[in-house]
Amino acid sequence: MIENPAASRVLVLNSGSSSLKYQLLDMRDASRLAAGLVERIGEQTSRLKHTCVATGATREHGGPIADHDAALKAVAEELGRDGLGLDSPELAAIGHRVVHGGMFFTEPTVVDDEVLTEIERLIPVAPLHNPANLTGIRTAQALRPDLPQVAVFDTAFHTTMPESAARYAIDPKIADRHRIRRYGFHGTSHAYVSRETARLLGKDPAEANVIVLHLGNGASASAVRRGRCVDTSMGLTPLEGLVMGTRSGDLDPAVIFHLARVGGMSMDEIDTLLNKRSGLFGLCGDNDMREIRRRIDEGDEGAALAFDIYIHRIRKYIGAYYAVLGQVDAVAFTAGVGENAAPVRQAAIAGLEGLGLAVDPGLNAVRSGEARLISPASARVAVAVVPTDEELEIATQTYALVGKNN
Q1: What local confidence, expressed as pLDDT, does residue 406 receive?
Q2: What is the pTM of this model?
C-alpha cells in the first residue's frame, strides 16, 4: 500500500465541526515535523496557527476560511512553505481520528466507500462528531486520492469489553435495534497510556493491569487487563461516567423525565443542560481546574463543593475498577487535568491506602512532561502520571496498517 518504500511520514487529522487539528510525524523516529490548528472554520474570524518543529517557527493567519476543504488547502500551503507539502513522496498516509466506530470497527481501517457508508450510518449515535470526521476524510481524499486514508476510532480500544460490561440492562432486542450499548471513548488515549504505564513499570503491556484516568475537559476511566480494555466509564455517548468540565457524568435517568414532566424542559434543553451546562461548570460556573483551585484557596465554598464532587466520582471509579480487575499494577493519570493538577491526583488517591495506593507529596508536586511514578517506593500499587499522545497513537496505528498491507 505504501507506493514509495522510503515514505515514512504520516499526517494526522482531527476534524471537528468548526476546527481542524493536525500533526505531521516521521515514523522512523516518531518525531514531530509540524503541527497546527485551524479554528472557527466557516466564520469571518477563522484562525490558523502553524508550527514547524524543526525551526521552531510559528505562523498565524486570520481571516475567513469557508469550509474544511479551504482549511486543509491552507494547511497544505503552510506545510509546503516548510518543505513538508502534501505532495511529498515521503508522505505515506493520512490518519484520521474518528470518534465513533460502533462495533463494526475494532481496529484502524483503510477508508473505502464501504467504510465511509458505515461511519455515516453511525451518525445517530455520534451526531456532533462523526459528520465532522467524515468531512475531514472526504476533504483529504479529494486532495490526495492516491494516498491511503486510515480511520482510527476512539471506540475501537473498548470493543474488547465483555458483554457483561458493555450491555445495559434493557431489552436486548430494543438495544440491538437502536445500537444501544457501552462503547466508550478516548480509546486512543487509553490504549497509549495503558501501554506506556506498563513500560514505565518494566512490564510487558500484556502482563499489566492498569486503571487509566483520562482527566481533561472531557474525562473517562478505563480498566485495562493485560493490554485489553474490560470496562470504561463513558457509554453510548461521552456523557456517562466521571464529572467533566461541562458534562454531568453519571445521572439517574429519571432526572430527565422529571425535568421534562415537572420542569417543562424540552429534550433539546435537557440535552444542552447535561452536555454543556453541567459538570464543574454547572456546579460552580468554572470548568478550568486552575481557576477552581484558585477560588478554593480564597475560601470559595461553591468551588470547594464542586471539587469534592469531582474527586468523589473519580474515587468511586478507582474502587470499582479495582474490583473489576481483582489485581492492579498501577493507576495512571493523564490528559490536561490528570497531567498537570497535582491537587487532583493527591485528593483522588487520598484514603485509598487500604488498596495499596498512595501518593508521595514531593514526587506529586514535580512538574514534568515525562512519564513518571508519583507513589512511594513502598506502595503496593504504583501511581503514575503518563502524558497522553493521541496523535502519535493514531500515526503509529496508521503507519503499522499501511506498512502491513504493503
Answers
A1: 54
A2: 0.92
